[in-house]
Amino acid sequence: MINILIIYLTDLKMLKIAIITGSLFMPLLLNAAERPEPGLLITSQNVAKYTDFIDEPISQLIKKQYLSIKVGKTFSIPANKVFQALTRKYKGLASLNAETGQIENYREGLPFSAEPSMADKSAGLKLAWNMRYSYGGDSSVVDPFIWDYRNMKTGKIERTLSFVGKTLRYKHRVLLEPVPELADNPADIFNAIYLLAKKPFDLKNTQLLVHRLEDDSARERTWLYLSIHRRVRRLPTGQSTDAFLGSDIMIEDFLGYNGRIKDMHWKFLGTRELLVPFFRYDQIPLGDVADSSGFRFGTFHGQGKCFPNIPWQLRKVYTLEAIPKWEQHPLSKRIFYVDAETFIPVSGRYYDRSGKIWRLGIAGFAHPDYHLSQNKGSGVAIPSLVSMVDVQAEHCTTLKMKTRINVKNLKQKDFTVQSLRTRGR
Predict the structure, then answer these.
(1) Of 58, 120, 151, 289, which is the most exposed, with the fewest CB atoms less than 10 Å away?
(2) Which domain holds residue 3?
(3) For the chain, what is the domain count?
C-alpha cells in the first residue's frame, strides 16, 4: 500500500519521484529533456538532452555524427485571410461517410478545424483530409528544380536531374480567378501535377502528368512521356509506388502524400512539440546561383550532404500513421508529422514490409514573407530544400527548389495529355 507520494522539484531539468511503501524506499528518476532554445547546435555530444523534441531516427543519426541541427526561432505562418474566412464560414459542415470514409458536404477552407482528439476514432482520417485540402496555393511553378542522387557514404553525386515542376488547382481555388473552380472540368479534377525534365540529355523532355480527382473513390490518372520512346503511356496504379526515374522517391510521395485517402488506414497517434525544418531564406547559407535572376539555392550538409542545411524550429505537430490496404505495397506503414498550423507533412518515416525503417523524408519549408517577393503574404509555406534518405542503402535524393506560388499565367491546356505529346516533339 502506498502511504506517501513525495515529489521533489530539485531542478527545472530533473524530476525526482519518491514512493515510500511501508519500510521500502524506492526512488524513481524521470529525466525531463531540456528544451532546445534558438541558437543551440545539437550534436552527438548533447543530443541526449533533447530527445523529447527530436524524432527518434533523427536522434540516432545525430548520435552517429551523420547530422547536426541548429535550432532556430519559432515563427508563425498563418493561412491567407481568404482561406481563413472560408474555414470559418463552412466550419462544421464537412463530415465523413461512416462506411467509406469519403468526405461529404465539404465546401471550402479547412474541412476539420477542431483540435484532433485521441478519443475520436476518425481523427486520423480527418487529418488526412486536412492535408489534402490545406492551402498550398492555387498554382505553383518550381523552376529550377534540381534532383541530386547522392551516395550517403561518400557524398558523391551520382546523377543530377533538372526539372520544371508545376501544379494547378482546378477546384477549391482561393485567390486566382476563376474562384472557386475552373469552368471546363468535365473529369472533376481536384488538382494536377506536371514535371518536365530538362537535363540530362537522355531524359530531356521526359514528362509526368498526374490528375488527382475530387472523388477519392476514383483512381488518380497518371501519364508518362518518355523521350526515348516518344509516346505517352498511362501508368498503372502499382507504378506510383516504384522508384521515380531511379530516385529514392515514389510518385506517391509527391506533395507529402499523392495517393488516395481511401487506400490507407489512418490513425492519429497524438500531439507533440517537435523540431522540424522550417526556416527563413534570408537566414541560411546560400550556394549555387540557380538562374539569371540571381536567386541562389540553399545547401545540404551532414553525412553525404544528405540533409538540408537550415535551422529547425520547435513546432506543434500531429503524429499520423498511414498503413496501406494494398498487400503488395512496398511500405508497411508511413508515419507523418503534420504541422498543426499549416497541415503540411513536414517530415516522416517510411517502413519496409518487414517493419524496419527504410526511408526518412525531411522537407524544409521557407517563410513566404522572407522568400521571393511574389510569395510574400501568400500564407503558404514555401517548399525549398527536401531530402529523402534511404537509411538502409545509405543513399539519398536531395531536391533544390525555386518555388513561386499563385502564378497567374498557367494554362489549363498545359495539364493535358495532348500537351505532353506536343511538348515531346
Answers:
(1) 289
(2) 1-32
(3) 2
